[in-house]
Structures are given as structure tokens and as C-alpha cells.
């Protein structure tokens, strides 16, 4: 495993992080609560991650309706010493109940939800607490003030943003500086060979303000594993059968053609497609870590092969230049 300093924080994180969004559900979708990995499967994944040197675990209060945090908490309790090894990330914002105030980034909601997360996780602090996505109904200074209070209280070590643009990150940092609050330390967004839009402004903003960037969905919801084939039905139990919405726009002829080219490039290097796709993400110096979501330990071990795939800047550019030619063909 390799490790990187997250922005200007004191956190050293593994460049591959364990995404726990499938523990007890499939993300935050209430219709899928109770699906995904059960306790034994989740424990096996966390054990495998620890064995591989993965130290960054990523979850959210809404994943599986709280089940993800609960499973992590039970695992930490059953593994003496693990809590001090793990950099624990959770998030707040998404709906967690039927009430009007059961979502958002208001100070009241944040204060309530950190207590619930700490209880489920069985810990006295969260290392990285993220706003899951913007909340137009709440001024950013209110959210940052609540995060600042939690940092001062020792309940969280650092705070950050998820699914924010570079412009929104810049605004948050500037507001924090003006009001005298702790600025965001992390930006977490989707980034992969199939989702490169974040590079437009987020990387510049992160570099300008010393904010660490973590990439979720570096395999584009499974598309960059090669399991989705042109003309074939999606595999049973895959993301495209359970929660296809976020990647519906990916299912194009150009994508299938691009994946076929990437598979050929991976074969030339003697590696599998997921390793090459992950290597493309983690060899970007702007990326601190990539959050992967294996379903079984064997998948995680194969993903770690990305650590042994060096890509120069020229090789990274070559991989992304191919789609443009395919789209023009």
C-alpha cells in the first residue's frame, strides 16, 4: 500500500480507500436498505482491507439507513487497536427520516447527526466529516460554523465537502476565511476515466487552497471492471440492475468501444482493466485517494494491483485521448 498526506491536514491516508456504501444497503436509497453486504460480508471486506494496508474507510450516516455505520462500529469493537489505525470518514446531509428536518446541512441537523454517527460507529471522534452534497436551503457559513464547533469540541478532526464543484469549494474556503472558521480540508467527488468533468475546476481549487481530493466511483459504478458487455444483459445484482440512475448516461456505443480499447491496453501491460483504470486515477498527483467498493475480498486484492501500474503523464493522456477519436468515428 502507498500513503499520502491529505491536503494540509495531519492525516496520512492509504491511496486506496474502502468504500462502505454497500454495507446493509446500496447507498442511501431506502428501497435498497437491507440489501448489499450483510454483517459477515462486511466484516470480511474490512478484514481484507486492513490486511492490505487500507487505512481510509468511507461511509455516510444515510448508507443503508445507518446500517453501514453500525457494521463499521461493530467491526471496530471486535478488532482491538483497529480504531487507531483507521482514518474514518462519514457524511451528513441526505435524508435520514420522514420529518421536515431530517435532512440538510443546518447547524441543528449537523449537531444531531454527529451524535447519531458517533453512537453507531462506537467512537468518540470522526476523522473526516463531510457535507454529502450542497444544501441550497442552508447558508454555507451556517454549515461551516457547525463543523467548526465540532472540531473545537473534539468530535471531528477535520471537515470537508462531497459533490461540490470547484467554484463551490472556493466560495466555502473564502467564507471560512472571512468569518474566521476552519476551512474545508477535503473535497470528495466522482472521478474516473469515464467521469473526468471534475478536472475542469475542482483540481485547480484544491491546489489553490491546499485541499485534499478524494475520488469516489473510480471504476464508474463497475463499468470499468469490464462486467458490462455490449449486447448482453446486465449481471444480476450489479449496480446497473439495482441502482442504474447515476450511470444511465454511460450506456452508449462510445463507452463500450472505449472499454474494449482500455481492455486491450491493460492486456498489453499484463494487468486487468480495473487495475489500469484505478492506476489512471491514483497516478494523478491531484488525487490523494481513490475510494473503491469491492463486494468480496478477492476483488479488493485485485484492485490493489493498481499500485504496481506506473503511468507517466504522457501515458495518462494517451488513455483519455482515445475516446475523442471513437466519438468522431
Question: Would you write up a description of this structure?
Answer:
The protein is an alpha/beta fold. The chain has a single domain, classed as NADP-dependent oxidoreductase domain (TIM Barrel), CATH 3.20.20.100. The chain is 40% helix and 14% strand. The chain is built from twelve helices and ten strands. The chain has helices spanning 39-51, 67-78, 82-85, 107-121, 140-152, 166-179, 202-209, 239-242, 253-269, 273-282, 297-303, 313-328; strands spanning 3-5, 12-14, 16-19, 56-58, 87-92, 126-131, 156-162, 186-190, 212-216, 289-292. The chain has an eight-stranded parallel β-barrel, surrounded by four helices. Strands 1-2 form a two-stranded antiparallel sheet. Helix 7 links the parallel strand 8 (186-190) and strand 9 (212-216). Helix 2 crosses helix 4. Mean pLDDT is 94; it is low at 323-329.
Amino acid at each position: 500500500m502507498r500513503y499520502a498526506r491529505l491536503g494540509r491536514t495531519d492525516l496520512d491516508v492509504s491511496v486506496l480507500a474502502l468504500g462502505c456504501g454497500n454495507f446493509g444497503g446500496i447507498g442511501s436509497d431506502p428501497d435498497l436498505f437491507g440489501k448489499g453486504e450483510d454483517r459477515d460480508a462486511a466484516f470480511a471486506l474490512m478484514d481484507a482491507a486492513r490486511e492490505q494496508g487500507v487505512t481510509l474507510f468511507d461511509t455516510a450516516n444515510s448508507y443503508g439507513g445507518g446500517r453501514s455505520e453500525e457494521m463499521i462500529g461493530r467491526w471496530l469493537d471486535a478488532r482491538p487497536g483497529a480504531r487507531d489505525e483507521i482514518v474514518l470518514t462519514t457524511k451528513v446531509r441526505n435524508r435520514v427520516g420522514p420529518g421536515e428536518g431530517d435532512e440538510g446541512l443546518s447547524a441543528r441537523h449537523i449537531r444531531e447527526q454527529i451524535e447519531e454517527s458517533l453512537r453507531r460507529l462506537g467512537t468518540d471522534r470522526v476523522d473526516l466529516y463531510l457535507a454529502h452534497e450542497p444544501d441550497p436551503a442552508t447558508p454555507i457559513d451556517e454549515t461551516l460554523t457547525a463543523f467548526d464547533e465540532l472540531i473545537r469540541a473534539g468530535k471531528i478532526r477535520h471537515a470537508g465537502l462531497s459533490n461540490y464543484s470547484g467554484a463551490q469549494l472556493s466560495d466555502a474556503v473564502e467564507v471560512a476565511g472571512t468569518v474566521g472558521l476552519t476551512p474545508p480540508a477535503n473535497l470528495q467527488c466522482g472521478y474516473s476515466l469515464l467521469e473526468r468533468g471534475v478536472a475542469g475546476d475542482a483540481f485547480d481549487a484544491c491546489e489553490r487552497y491546499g485541499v485534499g481530493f478524494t475520488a469516489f466511483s473510480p471504476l464508474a459504478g463497475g463499468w470499468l471492471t469490464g462486467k458490462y458487455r455490449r449486447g448482453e444483459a446486465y449481471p444480476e445484482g450489479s449496480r446497473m440492475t439495482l441502482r442504474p440512475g447515476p450511470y444511465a448516461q454511460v450506456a452508449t456505443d462510445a463507452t463500450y468501444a472505449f472499454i474494449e480499447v482500455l481492455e486491450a491496453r491493460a492486456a498489453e501491460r499484463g494487468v486487468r482493466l480495473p487495475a489500469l483504470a484505478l492506476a489512471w486515477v491514483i497516478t494523478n498527483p491531484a488525487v490523494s485517494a481513490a475510494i473503491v467498493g469491492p463486494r468480496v475480498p478477492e476483488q479488493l486484492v485485485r484492485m490493489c494491483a493498481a499500485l504496481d501500474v506506473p503511468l507517466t503523464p504522457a501515458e495518462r493522456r494517451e488513455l483519455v485521448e482515445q475516446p475523442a477519436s471513437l466519438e468522431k468515428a
